[in-house]
């Protein structure tokens, strides 16, 4: 019963984080809709998206995206042994994190101009100058992300997922507000308002909100520069700093090498990637984040049987949920892109150019889910070396294609970037599972491959029904003389095909895999019953 209870709690946590990520992704898409409407896929939007290469790299350099992963196991153990010592350790980590990110942000700000030339080899001199200006606005935002991640780790340890779920919503909200309000007030030009929104959102969403929540929960902040466990934390974080894997560099490679595809290529790749990251965030990242505290707790107790069972549940559930989401998006890619981005300066031709890029990227979504959960299983065992080594090898395998092949592709470089990025993620996920299976045994992965195949099979009738529904809607609209405006037509196709797809999948699951239907709908139904 204890394991069942833990799995139910993990499902509820995954639902909370998944819903948060879904809202955050939609807010991000709304932001990108404003960007695409105002600027399309052109020079100004290319510059804006590229402006995040350096800040994100600085964040990765300090393992900012993984600070919770490295901090949670150590801090959890210390709180159980000696709570006062745990607070001293937290104070030392917070102090060093703040000093390190502050120093790197200042250096990046000072050398913004040469960094702009380095990360955008395909840009013009004028674009490099504009990029340096954007860099100097968004770089200081990193000062709030890393300390905020330390505070979030405290909330995860307490199994308080609500505030971390709100953080990206507030961050995206400020970006959208800055991008729309500041230019209207004459306080910013072009996409500069979005950059100021990033800075404000980082402070309010990534730092201030978790700080308030942590203080209400009894935060005891004690600044320090030394603690015996700092060396252990550095040892765990070092592989993440040195081993910049294909997963954390994926978006940066898209932006850097996308600049070789000509004007608009960076923006088109970014728009396609935004759509692809919706199922990745809603399922893959949410499952990884939600399962990690449970896996870390079981690893600390050395309950390896329960650990394998929890990992297997997370992996199977991820495949069961993410595959149908991905299949439907593959079916309706042009309509999704058209509905979200088309209009203003984003033309139907640009929608047609982005659709194949999205479909290529979507093929990697199940592999994103596999590596997100499996990677956190390694981190729960306090093994950050293996994922870093495997990820680094996958990155090195991809680099020759990025560096030597893409420059020769010319206008098709964008499609090449999408292919290399998707292949790299797939390679990383498969290699990581292989290493985990050889090291721990294959018990945790029993049935995962079958869950993937069965989920794909259940999508076949759903795809047929979804395609048929889309064809009927298109035929009726054409017979009516094309009376609907493009956005209404796209919304109609998405709505009808989506309902038909869900009906087809639900019927197939009810007949051939009822447990899959329970996994997809179970957590939501349980929460509705509680209300």
Summarize this structure as a short list of keywords or feature phrases.
mainly alpha, globular, 22 helices, 531 residues
Concise summary:
The N terminus is likely disordered.
Task: Please give the structural blueprint.
Layout: H1 2-39, H2 43-50, H3 53-61, H4 67-81, H5 83-110, H6 112-119, H7 125-138, H8 142-157, H9 162-184, H10 192-216, H11 230-242, H12 246-258, H13 265-301, H14 304-331, H15 333-341, H16 348-362, H17 365-380, H18 385-405, H19 413-440, H20 448-479, H21 486-512, H22 514-530
Helix pairs in contact: 1-9, 1-13, 2-7, 2-13, 3-5, 3-12, 4-5, 4-8, 4-11, 4-13, 5-8, 6-7, 8-10, 9-10, 11-18, 12-13, 12-18, 12-19, 13-14, 13-16, 13-17, 13-19, 14-17, 14-20, 15-16, 15-21, 16-19, 17-19, 18-19, 20-21, 21-22
Report on this model:
The protein is mainly alpha-helical and 531 residues long. It has a domain at 40-242. It is 83% helix and 0% strand. The chain has 22 helices and no strands. Helix 1 (2-39) packs antiparallel against helix 13, helix 3 (53-61) runs antiparallel to helix 5 and helix 20 packs antiparallel against helix 21. The longest helix has 38 residues, at 2-39. The radius of gyration is 23 Å and the shape is globular. Residues 1-6 have low confidence and may be disordered.
